[in-house]
Amino acid sequence: MFQEIIKRDGRKVSYDIDKISSAILKSMSASNRTDKSESIRLAKIVEGELEEKYSDNPPSVENIQDTVENVLIDNKYNIVAKNYILYRSERTKVRELNSNLMQTYKEVTFTDSKESNMQRDNANINCDTAMGTMLKYGSEGAKYFYEKSILTPSQSKAHKDGDIHIHDFDFYTLTTTCCQIDLIKLFQNGFSTGHGFLREPNSIRSYAALACIAIQSNQNDQHGGQSIPNFDYAMANGVRKTFCSIYSSNLFKAISLICPELDISMKEIKGWKEKNSHELNLDMQEKYIDSEKKFLNKLGILNEKIKTIQQFVYKTSLEETEKEVYQAMEALLHNLNTMHSRAGAQTPFSSINYGTDTSLEGRMVIKNILLATESGLGKNETAIFPIQIFKIKDGINYNPEDKNYDLFKLACRVSAKRLFPNFSFIDAPFNLKYYIPNHPETEIAYMGCRTRVIGNVCGPEIVYGRGNLSFTSINLPRIAIKSNGNIDWFFEELERKMDLVSKQLTDRFHIQCEKKVKNFPFLMGQGVWIDSEKFNPEDKIGDILKHGTLSIGFIGLAECLKALVGKHHGESIQAQNLGLEIISFMRDYLDKLSQEKNLNYTLLATPAEGLAGRFVAIDKKKFGTIPGVTDRNYYTNSFHVPVYHKICAHEKIKLEAPYHKLTNAGHITYVELDGNMANNLDAFEKIVRTMKECGIGYGSINHPVDRDPVCGYNGIIENECPGCGRKETEDEKFERIRRITGYLVGTLDRFNDAKKSEEKDRVKHNV
Predict the structure, then answer these.
(1) Fewer CB in a 10 Å sphere around the end CB: N or C, the chain?
(2) CA 174 to chain centre
(3) Peptide bond preceding 537 in cis form (omega within 30 of 0)
(4) DSSP character for 126?
(5) CA 419 to CA 417: how far, in whole Å?
(6) Cβ neighbours of 16 (radius 10 Å)
(7) How many domains does one find in the chain?
(8) Does 462 reside within a domain?
(9) Alpha helix locations (H) across 521-568?
(10) For 648, what's the count of Cα atoms within 13 Å in the CB-facing half-sphere?
């Protein structure tokens, strides 16, 4: 007779028949057949069978449970057996949850983030800090809950096995991804952050400060990026108000200086200004000049003095306003790189779009945000946030005769030094189709790494007040590997995965629709999301949430093509054609689904940060090392030509451009350059122009940006700082600013292993 049993963790404990009879009794009770004596009898039968089978070695818990099931069935207790199986399954699920979750928590608690990929799946979060660790606790616990209790079994299995990846899974039932914030609407009459009301701003400094507060507040309502699509137009109002205030003050000073004999008060001037300030702006319209001249005449000032006064006041006010705007833009950069959201664990993931406002006020904003970016932060650091996007448009800033052409040239100069701004192209056909002149809400804007939201089957096709609701990515290389070169089977399986993911996105959408306005106190409560101002706190948000997008993404097109035809799209025209066929198939599927469901299903060129390594690690374990497919630590981002493939910049842009048209949820094309691009602005601009002419929607140019934190030198640093001559040490490392998926990171230590490998493999593209 055995005296011990083996627990699931390998420990040996004393055998106790009472535990068997107790488990049987619970199952009988669930079947309304409670009989303690019968449960004891059945337990003894179980014990007898165990003695026969395990006379030499003690049985495991699993052995005992299997025997209980068989004894119950043999003794015609089929319903009791069914309840016992269900009970056993639930207990297994709870044990698995606790065991896996506890192991994860141990890793978060006791492992340095540099040793843990899981803690580096988002380079914008520092998991070595208390708040970063606490955020990770909540994140990992939520994922387990959703996997076990919210997803369907097929969805859970597909996500866990690496067929698909549900992005921002920890926020699955809580919120949406991102939003494009219309600051003009938000600032009108002021807004509240929940801890006090902020009145409508009246100066450019206040406009800039409140823009940061809006981004920070909205970040706490969503898990993704916060974008301002009309930064120049919105800030221009603040410039005009600042100019008017400064102008009034200078007018009083000028009158007092030139006409000291007049007894006039500042109050009198401000009173007149309030009645006429709507006519005053930086371009000093003739109507205002004449009106002011009449006012000064009434005060008794002669015409020759009036001309002197007006010229002096305008020139001085313009100079002072310019200084105020620069200070405001500098403060905005400092704030967005130092303020925190999500319990202090993360810098707000912010983006600003600008470049097309041709008013003097708008131009002043664009000029000074660029100059402040070029200057850098307090110790010459490159600003990581906001992600800056310069919008390019024929007739506005692209040609030498265009009004904002000088600002386009400045944007190239600043990007060549600081990696920002990126460039978006309104004239790309798939962006231009929405564009209406003099309607900034129809100008394409991008969010964060690449997200794009403008088309709408449910309402207005604008960028303001809309964003992505959620997205899930498909593992394309996995399908290709399993197809064994059978293209027809590949497309059949891809469609099955599209069915699975679209159902999962719809399920998630229905959960989101059950949320109320009060669950999003800033996003919905302050009217940031389109039409949310019409709703009350207890109202459900489904009727307006439909204006957002539900996106299916993909990763590893290059490796997918290698598995299917032996070459990726950078190596063969055949592969390029097949690649376009695959992505067209996905887009057509989603377009049809959008019409059928009357929801915005869109296709995303996935920004794969942690996912790049996760998919390939699972596939390498499952299928082994396959040359060109699973032989690296990462899969290639979306439709990109692999970073290790030697190709010229023009050819890379040309190959990737057609995919921008197909990926209506977002996309980006990078070109990797060597050397200090600030010394070769012609080459830099040439690449931007190539992107525009090839039909790219959104593009960026990568190049090394290094900084010595000791002397502040910014440029390219090899082993020795050109500024002070010192060499890098373990205690004082050089900063290596690199782009990870669409945003910048100030240290490669924050990159996960897959992204470190990818960054190391990046080849430079010849111009």
Answers:
(1) N
(2) 16
(3) no
(4) -
(5) 6
(6) 10
(7) 3
(8) no
(9) 542-545, 557-565
(10) 8
